[in-house]
């Protein structure tokens, strides 16, 4: 009975899962921000390339 109580009180696994979920959310936010930045940067380089080609 004591081992079952100790098993139910063990929070180490839950903490690891929570840290994993936080890491996943941060990763998703970083990837979406980098994609947006990449698209904006690509547009800027294309604009500069077109301006240089005109001269």
Give unreliable regions as ranges.
Answer: none
- H/I helix tally: 2
Mean pLDDT, as a whole number? 86
Q: Could you tell me the strand content as a percent range?
A: under 5%
> How much helicity do the residues have?
over 70%
The biggest sheet, with number of strands, parallel, antiparallel or mixed sense and barrel status, is: none
Question: Topology as H/E string?
Answer: HH
Instruction: Compute the number of strand runs.
Output: 0
- Helix/strand-derived category reads mainly alpha
Radius of gyration: 24 Å
Globally, the shape reads rod-shaped
Give structural notes:
The chain has 55 residues and is mainly α. The chain has a domain of 35 residues. The protein is 93% helix and 0% strand. It contains two helices and no strands. The longest helix is centred in the middle third of the chain and has 43 residues. It is rod-shaped and about 85 Å long. The N and C termini lie far apart (83 Å).
Which short descriptors sum up this protein?
single chain, 55 residues, mainly alpha, 2 helices, rod-shaped
